[in-house]
Predict the structure.
Amino acid sequence: MNQATQDKPGGHKTSFASTQRTDMWWVEPLLTGLGFLCFVVYTTWAMWQANHYWHGSYLSPLYSPVLFVDPTAPGAVPLEHAWFGSWPQWWPKFLPASPAMFILMGPLAFRSTCYYYRKFYYRSYFLTPPACAVTALPQADYKGETKLFLFQNLHRYTLYIAVGYIILLAYDAFISYFHHGKPGIGVGSLVLTINVILLSCYTFGCHAWRHLVGGKADCFSCPAGKEHLGHKAWSKVSMLNHNHQFWAWVSMIWVGFTDFYVRMVSMGVWTDFNTWGF
Amino acid sequence: MAKRMFRVWRGDADGGRFEEYTIDVDQGMVVLDCIHRIQALHATDLACRWNCKAGKCGSCSMEINGKPRLSCMTRMNTFAEDEVITVQPIKTFPLIKDLVTDVSWNYEQNKRIAPFKPGKKNKDGNHVMYQRDVERVQEFRKCIECYLCQNVCHVLRDHDKKDKFVGPRFMIRLASLEMHPLDTEDRIPKIKEEYGTGMCNITKCCTQVCPEHIQITDNGIIPLKERVVSRYYDPILALWRKIFSKKDPS
Ligand code: SF4
Ligand code: SF4
Ligand code: FES
Ligand code: FES
């Protein structure tokens, strides 16, 4: 039995999303696209709440560092924790007095220029291509990352910012083991500690980091044959880099969960088991 | 032995169609065996390219149920028993006949790349290279030039930007030269301007189809992109070069 001639010799169709693939190729871009959307919706909602981001000595990572604070909001940090004191007068009234508004740009810029996230959103949202051997969304003159997306080349600068956040979040995790100066431990301390560990595995597996710590060298043992420090660092980073996608997802989900955890205990919905007994 | 149905594309650059063939398939057969059986029993003029039947010559690239694969490495028992198997030539290169395409564009790209240029020898008259340096570039040397990555890359396949991008196979050739400790040639300007690192949007289909499991994107293209960033886009490095007469801080 014969079939009609196809678009291109070889039987390949050229219209958008056409393919001869018989598997469910659309599942992965759909799920990753939806999964990330859920995270964006949750973070935006959490940022908009402007409350319940602090409990005992636990600070939600979506709100750290706190630059200004409106201490009257329920579940807000005490005034002395804000870097620059109370909420500024000039803040527009139509926006909530949320400390998260000042700081979410950093992590957002880091993740949105990350090589892994680029892979995923070029596939899921820009459909170039939606999946392998599935026809990409037609473009009159495809330019890749040479024009509109040229800014992606500054990813390493967002990395420098992200490393700053890791230091701040490590400090937040550290102080979560003290309540009014008294050392102790709570489930929240563990949640915050896991958060900074996962974020470190993601951040220090970054491709730009891998280049900067050693990958940029053409020779790992010149001139005398001795191993460079850069090679040692590059090998360690390569191990994390190998699972960069995994760390990207678990760290992102855990950041959301950490905020949710602090929010729930701050609202009194969940009880935080801890040695301080509050 | 089981009867299996194949849809094989037959035709040339002027057009053609899928023809259906039913053959007996024995245990252990790969798709290339089935193509040979179809040739022997039903279509003696069916054109296909192959050589080693061991996944090492890179000749037998085809699209099997829409996926770019080596037909000699695609076992029949990986398909469901009642699955019809569609076999097509690779899409990105001009069709010659049936399953055979003209991949000579790739050889032209290869010629554009400045070859290995070693520096001075040591006093004892030798070049020395250490194992840890060998390891990084060795991965790229596993390439069997099957061009499945070139075929699946949407920049070439869908957007037809063959004038702007040499494709993933040649990106890893460039990476193997640029990361070679003995090489002295500087290809970074051309990597940016002519070979087109910026055209790749790191969607990783090349890595996904590579039968040699070369980490084309992570170990080849992204490191090259980062080298281009250091040379052309990093403002602090640019300032550094201005102040310290063009030497990179490394
Ligand atoms: S990662 Fe780049 S080179 Fe590889 S298939 Fe995608 S666009 Fe092409
Ligand atoms: S890199 Fe892999 S897919 Fe590309 S030509 Fe070489 S072996 Fe084939
Ligand atoms: S590449 Fe993912 S964080 Fe840099
Ligand atoms: S025939 Fe050589 S790789 Fe398939």
Summary: Chain A touches chain B through 58 residues (CB under 8 Å). Confidence is low (pLDDT under 50) at residues 1-6 of chain A.
